[in-house]
Every structure is written in C-alpha cells, then in structure tokens.
Amino acid sequence: MRSPRGLARLAAGLTLVVTVACTSAGTDDDVTAPTPTPSAPSPPSPSRAADPVSLPALMAREHHGSGLRLGAVRLRTDAYTQYAVTYRSNGLTISGIMNVPRGEGPFPALVLAHGYIDPDVYTTGQGMPREQDRLARNGYVVLHTDYRNHATSDDDPDNDVNLRLGYTEDVINAVHALRSAARPDVDDGRIGLLGRSMGGGVVYNTLVVAPGLVDAAVVFAPVSARPEENIDHFQRPEGDPVVDEIEAAHGTPEENPEFWRQVSPLTHVDRVTEPLLIHHGTADDTCPIAWTRTTVAAFEAAGKDVELRTYRGEGHTFGPRWPDSMDTTMAFFARHLR
C-alpha cells in the first residue's frame, strides 16, 4: 500500500506544483544547507510536435511497466536473497536481478541503473555488485535493471541510433513494475533511484521525464548531461560507426541544434522535483568532473535540490572513499525515503 508520503509526492508530480530546494555544490567536507525555492516543471510545448527521439517525446508518452516476475534464486546470504527477474517495459521484456532483504517488510526500494558495459559481454545483474550488496544489507529491496539489448532482455535495434533513450524508458518502467506488482515486501511509497556513469545520465533523464515518479536519486561519476559531449568523448575517438548513423538520422549539433537541445536533460531541468545527490572523484579521467559541475550549476540555477560530494584523488570506480560515499548515500536515502 502506498504510504501517505508517497501519495503526497505522486500528487505533487501529477499536479506539477512542487517546492524544491537548492544546495550549493561543494566537497565532501563542505556542504551548504538547502534553501527552499518555489518552482514548477513545465510540460512539452504544445505548439509543435516533439521529435519522436527526444525527451519531450518521452514526457508525452504513456509508460507501461508491469509483469514483474521473480525467477530462480541466484544467491542467498545472511541478509538477503537475490532473484533473477523480468518485467515488461513498453512492450519489451527486460531482465535484471532483485535483492530482497530478510525479515518483515515492506522495505523501501531502489532501482539501479548501471554504467556502460558492452552488451555483447554483459551478464545479468552486472555493473554494481558492491552497491547491490550494501543497499540490500541496509534494508532496501534492490531492483537492478539490465536494460534492453542486455543479457536476456528483448532487443531494440534502433536504441543506439536513438541515443539509448530506451534505457530511460526501462528505468521508468522498472519503477512502475515494482508498484504494479503490489508485493508485500516492497513499500511502493518509498522508491529511489541510483545510477552510475552512463546510468547517471539515465537517472538525469528519468528525473526530467517523470517528475514525481520517485522520492530521491543518487548518481556516481555520471556522464555528461549533453549527449554530444559523450559521443565526442567516448564514441568518436574509437571510430564507432554508430556515430555516423546518429548524425545521418538526426544531424550534427551544428546542423540540427534543436534536436540536440531536446535530448539534453539540462534543457528540461525545471521539471525536476526530487532531491539529487551526486558523487564524483576529482581524478576521474573517464567522466570528467567538469561535466558534473556544469550539471550542478544548471540544477542550482533552476532552484533545485542538488548536492555535490567530491572526493579528492578518487577515480571513476571509487576506491578508498567508496565506503564514505555509501555512508553518505545511506543517510541521504534515510532522510528522503521515509
């Protein structure tokens, strides 16, 4: 059953009237208290049809996540049981794993969005094993989505050319599938998101496409919120042939700047209603911290509740400071998923 708090948040998202706060970006030793600022997310402009490959098109689309099914037990620990799962996402079957804590629920739930791993070598549940374990041991149901085109999920042949926006659909629908399953071990009024690297970008997209869907979000070492920067940084230097396909279908940023504006969550940041915590290492040479500072500045300018924690000397995968970052994550979710 949805908690009163969950119903209130959902109502806020549906009426698109919210109160948000802004937290100044700083280091893990320098965090400024939030100051409430009124704001309201804006719907896509009705004056022109949205490009079908765009965040406004996802905003206008009705998302259907359902059919969450627990399959074989993959792992039993003293704290939780891990199951193979599948669910339906806008007509596709998506695989993943779910950790269910031992004990009497219902438990708050977190949907995890993993970073880039070549789909040809990816195996179900791969990507964030440390986080999956730590979160379940702290009393969270953890649903880790594989995304479409990964593991035993259905294929979407246009996903790469369409800037992998299908992953955003799969995360949104993972939340809907959790809720529609009406499981007694899941408190569907307390659901959050956690994304890493590419999954951080998926979380950004989810927050702007579906305000009010969840209660809070955390991202680690996220990619740029501007897709063209990710292409230039990751794909173009490797000679990825998908780049030519993307530009043939949608144009370059110079040829079609409006398309590239509409696939960036920064363009729609005014819609965000959930508090966001970002972790980033200063020595990250995979996803430069400058990308995150740009994102944080956009959230702050829009009056949103965003907090940046930086970790001196930490790289992309986090090492010695990972436990500290998870302690901060646990405290953040404890405040917002209650």
UniProtKB/TrEMBL annotation:
Signal peptide positions (record): 1-25
Gene Ontology molecular functions: hydrolase activity
Region span, Disordered: 26-52
Statement: the UniProt record of this protein carries the keyword Transmembrane: no
Peptidase S9 prolyl oligopeptidase catalytic domain sequence ranges: 134-337
Pfam families per the UniProt record, alphabetical: Peptidase_S9
Composition bias type Pro residues, residue spans: 35-46
The UniProt record lists the keyword Lipoprotein: no
Organism superkingdom: Bacteria
UniProt keyword annotations, A-Z: Hydrolase, Signal
UniProt family annotation: Belongs to the AB hydrolase superfamily.
Protein name: Alpha/beta fold hydrolase
Lineage, opening ranks: Bacteria, Bacillati, Actinomycetota, Actinomycetes, Kitasatosporales
